[in-house]
Amino acid sequence: MDGDGCKFGAVAAVQGIATPISVAKLVMKRSQHSILVGKGAQQFAKDHGVPVLSNELLQTENSIEAYKEFMRKKQKESHDCTAIGHDTIGVLVKDFQGNFAAGTSTSGMPFKSCGRVGDSPLPGAGLYADNEVGAAAASGDGDHILRFCPSFQVVQHMRNGMHPKEACKRVIMDIWRRVGENKMFEIALIAINSEGEVGMASTVNESANNFGPNPFPGFAYCLWNSEQKRSPRVLCEPPLVWSDFQNEKP
Questions:
Q1: Among 39, 2, 45, which Cα is nearest to 27's?
Q2: Where would you tag: which of 48, 68, 123, 126 has the fewest CB atoms within 10 A of its CB?
Q3: Rounded CA gap, 23 and 1, in Å?
Q4: Which of 32, 191, 220, 1 lies closest to 102 in space, CA to CA?
């Protein structure tokens, strides 16, 4: 999503594309549409020179073993197994001219039903950008996240003068109150405003660590600006808990 005019592009339920976010950008720039799905999105990618690969080439030994284990468990149980975990990447950018961009990319919930679409490719749910205010992105349980349009809500709170961190926290607080204390799902929100201030909040207890043996505590994220001479460091935001909201006003 481009904050200049709130331009948007997305693809969903598309197979054979190693970098679907690049196709989403092409949809935004070169299509009269905003969202393309399935075979139509795949054909659009082909038409614009994006390689379409076989499913076998996009699989790894780990993903194949995980799928086999999932099927073994599913056959032993009378009800469907629920796969856990997700791999959403959310990126927010502010350039020297004050323009904002937001992007999300994910392979979706593991072992999802064919045709399933989560929050990542939906404006206002998985991401939102507006040059007048800032940008926000979400990660977590997309089937629940898209019910609340949290990224749009965060941007609107910032429009009303709220700091990005407080805006993210306020949106999660509101959702938690709606669903109930014991029914909250996993969600993480990140945001940046026109002043370059950043903030995040989440209910994530730990994040996967591809750089070491132990997971990161809380929600893992990176910050970087043009003045930094080193690579971004991984930082962690502790999860919110229900008691954090008891003294907060709605």
A1: 45
A2: 68
A3: 13
A4: 1
Residue 140 host element (H or E): strand 134-140
Q: Cα–Cα distances in Å, from 3 out to 7, 64, 101, 129, 240?
A: 7, 39, 6, 5, 29
Helices (H) and strands (E) in the chain, counts: 6, 12
Q: Please name the residues in contact with 174: beta carbons below 8 A apart, sequence gap of 6 or more.
A: 153, 250
Integer Cα distance of 126 and 103 in angstroms: 9
Task: Indicate which residue of 19, 82, 88, 203 is catalytic.
Answer: 88
Instruction: Let me know if 82 is a catalytic residue.
Output: no
CA dihedral for 228, 230, 231, 235, sign (positive or negative): negative
Cα separation of 149 and 173, whole Å?
14
C-alpha angle 18/101/131, rounded to 5°?
Answer: 160
* Sign of the CA dihedral with 160 first, then 162, 163, and 164 last: negative
Question: For tokens 């919110």, what's the residue?
Answer: 240
Tokens read off for 84 = 């856990």
Residue 244 CB burial class (10 angstroms; 0-12, 13-18, ≥19) = middle
Q: Token digits for 2? A: 């481009």
Q: What is the pLDDT of residues 40-70, one digit of tens each?
A: 999 999 999 999 999 888 888 888 888 888 8
